[in-house]
Fold this sequence. Notes:
Strand content: 25-35%
Radius of gyration: 15 Å
Order of helices and strands: EEEHEEEHEEEE
Shape: globular
Largest sheet: 6 strands, mixed
Strand order of the largest sheet: 1-10-5-6-4-3
Helix content: 10-25%
Structural class: alpha+beta
Distance between the termini: 10 Å
Number of helices: 2
Low-confidence stretches: 1-12
Amino acid sequence: MYLLSLSQACSAHGEVTLSSSTNITIREEGLEAARGFLSELLGRYLKLVLRRGQLSGTGASVAFVIRSDVSRWTEFAPEAIREVSDIDSFEIEIVGPPQPQVTISGRTPLAAGYGVMAFLEDHLRVHWAFPGELGLCLPEAGRVDLAEGIYRERPF
C-alpha cells in the first residue's frame, strides 16, 4: 500500500479503448532486476478485467511498455534525487491513436511496480477488499476507456 504525495494529470485529448477484441502487447525496458514479473502481473489483470484468456486479439492494437531507468536507487547521480520520494516516483503516459500506447515508467523496477499497481487501481479499476484472490474486486464491464494524458505520482 502506498500514499500519494503528488499527482498531476494532463488534460485528455483522446481515448484508448481496451475491449475483448483489442490486440495487446506488453514490452519491458530496463527491468533486469524484475524481468518478466511486472509484465506478467499487468497481463494477468488485463485479461481478468477484459474477460478473456489471452492478450492477443483481432481488434485494434494497443502496446504497453513498462520501463525503469536504473536497477537500484543507489545508481542515481546525486543530483538526480531532490527528495526521498523522487526515488519511487513513476509516470503513466497514455497516448491515443493512431498508435495507442500506455507507458508505465519508474526510476527503478520497484517504482515501475508502483506504477503498474496504480494503473491497475486507478485506470482499470481493480481493487482488493482484502489480500488474496477472494478479496479481488473487478469492474463489471469487459471494456475500459483510458483518457489520453500523462499521470505523474510520487508515493509518500
